[in-house]
DNA sequence: CGATCCCGCCACATT
DNA sequence: AATGTGGCGGGATCG
């Protein structure tokens, strides 16, 4: 048969005129000497020939049929084929000639011919990789489906993945707009950033382990999960939040999975991701029961996605040999560094932009949803509701594109990740040998603190935020704990997790990030100036829009993630660069989420409030489960963001406290400080600050080593439960602020006492600090943010600072701040504040929850109300 | 026999 | 209610 064809073909005219870029397609044709014989017109195609006929033909050529033929050919392969044979895989279709064969060919199209990968190639062949900006190519699903000869369902599979990378966007029903790869790098960059936040640690983790993931996800319960998520991922979701409702399940898997999957590659050092790991990570639910079936389904979907990505030339299939044996995996072969990326102006994610139609609303919020489980419920409400501004949405206005992303999912996924990480960690703990570079510390309730090591290890910071689940304080902790309470000690000497500790310490990383729940938005924005920007922050948000916008409609919504992504990554990167190490972030992802819900209270976040809130949180650890969780999470993320922000500006970050104080001035304060390690400094350094280190470390007290962190960390609400110790006294050169402000330089010491509640956080101004930090070249010390965190006076007051000498703190006088206990706290922001915030942002549970308020903090930024709030607060606090 | 993953049912969303 | 979307998983193929 083939022969016939061939014979015919040869003569045939080469039809392909189309410029479609076949370039990608491989080699097919070239090999053939003769020009590609294209299929001829005469092909039997049924289609009525329309103007587009050419296209169709081409397509058809490419189509499966062709493939079939080819296969056949392979089999028999007459002459010409022989040549081609070389490039079997590639898409040969071009060359195809085939029309002739059609008849026969079909006979038995092998499965391969029908593969999604091929289909995708054909699909891609129809559109230029880099279309002229001027023209817009619209894609009609029906048309394409018919042209390619497949059911529409299959087209959806392709388009959904392409959409996740912003190569196309949905314009209307049945209509997609082709964007090409112009924004691909941006999208990837965004994903990378988001991925680092979300998965960085995990991946690192896994990889370290060699990817052996033994853990079984199955067991983990949701509870464990709670925290990790954050919204970070989101990526760009285009969706506008607004339509929140829209979110529906759609956003569900494919699109999101695809993005996440890509993120895993981008975050992975090896650029190789095994299917099973990816599946585990992507399984959203808490999956306590990780049913096997679920896993299988996930894997199936990943294959679908992988096929499309493979067609795009972004990944290729490989196998990794692990302990267990060989496992299927994929290797990223796409761009790793994104040129433009480097810095996008902070803020917004590029991704959003690309999408024309999409609304990119940012829906950031989603993740935050914190509760993992529920997230599915449409957050839309929240998202859309407040956060999303109409404005944005409208802008985006699209046809109707409903798709918004449902970030919820993300949340859930995040959770899963967290769970996974957790497991790993646990495992590690058990097997010290393995130890991953990072250690986690579960943070008790507050996720606020997280220390992240940027560089290498990552682990999720999980904060236990609220473990509504079981652990009041830190969920994660429990997981960890089990293995070793002692863990704190770190098996390898690495930092470890302290069981109850609020933060995580990462050893290697050059940086630690402390995450407090803050709003990210604010953070980011504030970053720049840190200090003063009260207004700016507001502005920032406004300005930021891109970022914020993207995801969430408004700041509040703005899920931290988005911003975070952008910025943090940057920060991290910076650090990384220095270290070289990939950063791992701890991700607090949650913050964002919360905003919406709890934002109200949180919004207040002003320092004082925050603090209080924290306290509250602590006190009521679990309280509202979801709420707490969310809140906590949000905090983390916020912190991160902040941190990142801070860092950007300069190191000095603001402590929460500091913030609080400031917040009067500024709406948002960065909650945490993060310090970049200087070259000289090792991460450890951070941990163990020179000054205190000795003592701290030794700390026998609880056996917990205390850490000195160069950075100041502000406790988030969660912390509240823990006493904070601040030792301003220590050398803080700056020490300007009497109240409790700490110089930026101040290092924090965390003592990890076993008890979460008890664990005090020390903040020392100690000189130890990393060099960089204190001086911060970039920033003037003076600057607002300037160095230290200041505890807001208010807080201080309210909290009552106590000086402690904790054993831990060794010689330094430490000021311990106690957080007011919730109950005690007379003023909680929320109480003080007008309800309205609450109304908006808060969720039901939020009020009570400290956590919630944290979230809110971030949110508040945007509104004047926040300001008011502050004022009020301030006034009150004074009392 | 495990890895792939096509196929298309059917639920949910949008019109 | 009709139609668009797309989750999902049975079970066929591939290797």
From TrEMBL:
MF-aspect GO terms: DNA-binding transcription factor activity, RNA polymerase II-specific; RNA polymerase II cis-regulatory region sequence-specific DNA binding
Location in or out of the cell: Nucleus
Domain E2F/DP family winged-helix DNA-binding: 111-180, 249-334
Biased composition (Basic and acidic residues): 65-77, 639-658
Any GO CC annotation of this UniProt entry: RNA polymerase II transcription regulator complex
Superkingdom, natural source: Eukaryota
Compositionally biased tracts (Polar residues): 81-90, 475-490, 858-879
Alphabetical GO biological process terms: negative regulation of DNA-templated transcription; positive regulation of macromolecule metabolic process; positive regulation of nucleobase-containing compound metabolic process; sprouting angiogenesis
PANTHER family associated with the record: TRANSCRIPTION FACTOR E2F, TRANSCRIPTION FACTOR E2F7
Homology family: Belongs to the E2F/DP family.
Name this polypeptide is given: Transcription factor E2F7
Source organism per UniProt: Mesembrinibis cayennensis
Underlying gene: E2f7
